[in-house]
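Summary for the lay section of the report: proteins are chains of building blocks that fold into shapes. Here we show the chain for Metallophosphoesterase and then a coded description of the shape we predicted for it.
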Amino acid sequence: MAADALVEPVPDAPAATADLGDETGLLVADYHAGIEIGLRYERGVELASAADERRERLCGLLAETRADRLVVLGDFGHRIGETGRTEREELRDLLDAVGVPVTLALGNHDPGVAEAFGDRIDVTPADGARLGDVGILHGHTWPAPEVLAADVVCMGHEHPSVKLADEVGGARVERAWLRGPLAREAFADAVDVGEWGDPELVVFPAFNERSGGTWVNVAGQSFLSPFLPNGLERGDVYLLDGTRLGEYRAV
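The coded shape description reads as follows.
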């Protein structure tokens, strides 16, 4: 089965459906529950909580797609380390509402989430896991060999965005997808690749629009993942509405 049939973005949403073999999954990345509290202490930014809106948006996507499972590609919560009260409350309310099993690809912000909610969600190792022919990981570590043996690899962590300028000098930043063939050479010195699935890589936009991102088309921006950009020698960038902007290095 072709990779583009395995993972399909939901139009106008930072989410995708995926054929997981015996289930249909709704995949999202970088939910960052409790981010408003984090921004207050990290940057002195005061924002009203959007927890209810995030929950309603995600539950709406689950209903729209009729997914059997929610898969979060890391950073379900925002705080690194032990979860705070506000974050735990947001995640508890969300897990009460989703109505489907939840799998979390452990992200760098998630050790406290796994400790607090490990009895309610399935948590993968940090280097990811396979769900059918789909490999999942957050992307802050090198992937497991079984992930690289998949037909398509889905990750978060980067929060890819593009900065778009108009004819009169204005600019806007939009969340984006990155998709392209994964380059085996990028893993030769770090991972015992074993069986190579010649996978497509799909880098998900952040679900949480308040979490910032990597501007993939701005000089001087660097990737966060240890296997990017070398692992994506050529790939396209897409906006949430499906607009293809072309090769990400040339946008």
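Put simply, here is one thing we learned. The chain has a mean pLDDT of 90.
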